[in-house]
């Protein structure tokens, strides 16, 4: 759905990737109106039955019985970092059966709101990715250098679950093309907030809210938030 000269279709896989893992993307409603979204690119790389998108803020068993069943399945994982999360690599080593993974799509504050205000999402096993790569989604600002977009998270996670590194490369290909096109047409590279603060380049007023100010101090001092 883009102009032909910046069309991303040539950068998508010719056929949807064959994967056994099914993704449930829980998308905050605000993401639907964003122009430069990554979830449509992710969905275009996978079979429809392997990438299901649910839009909303609140999810309960009455309105989403299928999701509730998925959340109670012992093979379901939810990708959300935190003290309770296990590194995905450790889970993938012992898991041999097809899995379902839930990924929350939104800003970091929106994702946090969805995760903590929906009890269903506390049922699956919580997993996280090791901060081993920097985001290639350079046309949007991330909190830290190792914060990834939804597509990047899915690409890394699927490559781990499917034990196939080429999956990550294939899914990242259209994202790289998207960023390249945008930069060619006037977009600027967005460094992470962490990078800007550490290098004295942050040009916005510092927040008056003590909690937000503390978060910025943690970023500057390399302390995990």
Automatic annotation (TrEMBL):
Q: Does the keyword Transferase apply?
A: yes
Where does the UniProt annotation place the signal sequence?
A: none
Q: Which domain of life is it from?
A: Eukaryota
| A GO MF label | tRNA-uridine aminocarboxypropyltransferase activity
Q: Which residues form the DTW domain?
A: 1-187
Q: Which reaction does it catalyse?
A: a uridine in tRNA + S-adenosyl-L-methionine = a 3-[(3S)-3-amino-3-carboxypropyl]uridine in tRNA + S-methyl-5'-thioadenosine + H(+)
SMART domains tied to this protein: DTW
Q: Which enzyme class, named as a word?
A: transferase
Q: What Pfam families does UniProt report for this protein, alphabetically?
A: DTW (PF03942)
- List its EC numbers: 2.5.1.25
Q: Name one GO biological process term.
A: tRNA processing
The UniProt keyword set, sorted, is: S-adenosyl-L-methionine, Transferase, tRNA processing
The yes or no answer to whether the keyword S-adenosyl-L-methionine is present is yes
Give the UniProt family note.
Belongs to the TDD superfamily. DTWD2 family.
Q: What is this protein called?
A: tRNA-uridine aminocarboxypropyltransferase
Which gene underlies this protein?
A: Dtwd2
């Amino acid at each position: 759905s883009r102009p032909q000269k910046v069309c991303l279709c040539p950068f998508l896989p010719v056929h949807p990737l064959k994967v056994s893992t099914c993704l449930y993307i829980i998308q905050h409603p605000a993401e639907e109106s964003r122009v430069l979204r990554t979830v449509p690119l992710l969905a275009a790389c996978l079979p429809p039955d392997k990438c299901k998108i649910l839009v909303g803020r609140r999810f309960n068993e009455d309105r989403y019985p299928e999701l509730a069943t998925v959340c109670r399945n012992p093979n379901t994982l939810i990708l959300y970092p935190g003290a309770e999360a296990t590194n995905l690599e450790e889970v993938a080593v012992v898991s041999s059966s097809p899995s379902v993974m839930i990924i929350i799509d939104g800003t970091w504050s929106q994702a946090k709101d969805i995760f903590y205000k929906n009890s269903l999402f506390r049922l699956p096993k919580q997993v996280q990715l090791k901060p081993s790569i920097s985001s290639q989604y350079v046309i949007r600002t991330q909190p830290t250098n190792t914060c990834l977009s939804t597509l990047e998270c899915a690409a890394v996670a699927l490559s781990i679950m499917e034990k196939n590194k080429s999956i990550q490369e294939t899914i990242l290909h259209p994202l790289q093309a998207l960023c390249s096109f945008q930069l060619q047409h006037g977009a600027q590279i967005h460094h992470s907030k962490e990078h800007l603060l550490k290098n004295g380049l942050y040009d916005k007023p510092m927040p008056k809210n003590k909690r937000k100010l503390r978060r910025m101090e943690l970023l500057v001092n390399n302390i995990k938030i």
